[in-house]
Amino acid sequence: MQLKGYESSVTLEPVRYELANPAGDEWDDNWLVIKGDVSAPDAEWQFAVPCLTTFEAKRISAWLRGVANGDVPVSVSGDAGVVPSLEFTEPNLAFSVGSYHGGLMSVRVHFALESMPVGQSSDERDQFWVGIAVTAADLESSANQWDKALSVFPDR
């Protein structure tokens, strides 16, 4: 799945289960290694970390479609920084809406821990994000790409 704007892009792809062979634990058996490729004006980096379960990963396409429909509220900044509207068990990835303006939406992808560029402080994960201006059609396309990529990783 690729979210691509004028200056930034984020590509996320589930590449394998963390455990090649199921161990019989519904939770442990369903962790996915997510590969990321990020390009922003001030940094470019890649990562591959087990940071989403199959159950959590399914929420991304629903969230993208919700943003495309204008159903996800803009995340506000406060004392704790920008609070993502889509978070997961592992804090490596999160998502928020920066704004809706005309036909464009600003989507933020938040990074933490092993998903951050080398040398970046992970003290405040909500403070490190990449903003991408996209259209509703872009988000629908990204959601479809994500669903297709996840289809080879059913819940085990």
From TrEMBL:
List the InterPro entries hit by this protein, alphabetically: WapI (IPR056510)
Pfam hit, one? WapI
According to UniProt, the name of this protein is: Uncharacterized protein
